[in-house]
Every structure is written in structure tokens, then in C-alpha cells.
Design goal:
single chain, mainly alpha, 149 residues
Length: 149
């Protein structure tokens, strides 16, 4: 009997919460994520074309475009603009390289009041640390597979 009452209480609570929560706009969210993510990638492609026109090629070109996008991701994070972009675009702002730059710069800015060592340096990789570790680990595994095949 007590189990039945608990189940009814949980169901009633879930109905109450669903009634208060605003409806999710999945199509709008997907469209804005696609648009903003595509715009960020288009800006990166623009930089690629401009640097290619300036004479860069190969690895230098790829590295220069990555550095430019990381710089702008950190700059926009520092100015508070990237947070507004993220609120609007959701995952569309996280996927490109600028999202990774934001995930490193944002905790560094948030904890800067605690000092350079225990604040900025210690908290900088709280979000991105796991990505870096598993990225390096999976890169080593793939490299070993290619080496032995």
C-alpha cells in the first residue's frame, strides 16, 4: 500500500512539474544550433581562404586557422559574448573549436579571483581536462592500431 501511495505521489509530482515547465522547442533549438555552428565554421573557412590567398598551405594553414578561431573564442568568452551565443545556439556553439576554447577560458575567468595558481591554473581544465585526456588516449590507441596493422 505504501509503495502504491509513493508511486501515485511521484506521478502527481511529475504531472505538476510538466504543467509548470515551458514546452521545449526542439525544431527551433536544432535550427539555431545548426545555423550558429555553420556560421562559426563558415567564418573559419573564410579565414582559411584568406590565409591561403596570403600564401600559407598545408599544416601552417590549418594551424593558423585553428589559432585564429581559438583566439576569437577566448576573446568572445572574455567579453561575455560567447555566453550569449551559447544561450541562443546551444550545442551549435560547443561543437566547433571555438567551443573548446570557451570551455577552457570560461572556468579560468570564473576562478581568477582565487589567484593564478589555485584559481586560474587549477580550474582552467575542469571542463576540458577530460576531453584532453580521452582525446590523447584515443589518439594513442588509434596510432598503435595503425602502427601494428
Amino acid at each position: 500500500m505504501a509503495e502504491q501511495n509513493a508511486r501515485n505521489c511521484n506521478e502527481n509530482y511529475l504531472k505538476y512539474v510538466r504543467g509548470l515547465a515551458p514546452p521545449t522547442k526542439h525544431f527551433k533549438n536544432c535550427l539555431s544550433a545548426f545555423g550558429v555552428g555553420g556560421l562559426i565554421c563558415t567564418i573559419g573557412q573564410f579565414f582559411r581562404y584568406m590565409l591561403q590567398y596570403a600564401g600559407l598551405s598545408g599544416d601552417e594553414l590549418a594551424g593558423a586557422v585553428s589559432v585564429i578561431l581559438i583566439f576569437f573564442g577566448c576573446l568572445l568568452t572574455g567579453l561575455g559574448v560567447y555566453d550569449r551565443i551559447g544561450r541562443y545556439a546551444g550545442a551549435g556553439s560547443i561543437v566547433p573549436i571555438t567551443g573548446f576554447a570557451n570551455s577552457v577560458a570560461s572556468p579560468a575567468l570564473e576562478f581568477r579571483t582565487e589567484g593564478l595558481i589555485y584559481g586560474t591554473a587549477a580550474k582552467m581544465f575542469t571542463v576540458a581536462g577530460a576531453i584532453i585526456v580521452y582525446g590523447v588516449f584515443s589518439g594513442v590507441i588509434v596510432g598503435l592500431i595503425y602502427y601494428f596493422l
